[in-house]
Amino acid sequence: MADVFDPEQRSAVMRAVKSRDTKPELKVRKAAHALGLRFRLQRADLPGKPDLVFPSRGVALFVHGCFWHGHACARGARMPATNTAYWRAKIARNAARDASASAALKAMGWRPVVIWECETRDSEALTRIIARRIRTLRPRPAFLRRRSRG
Ligand SMILES: [Zn+2]
Question: Fewest beta carbons less than 10 Å away: which of 2, 6, 67, 73?
Answer without folding.
Answer: 2
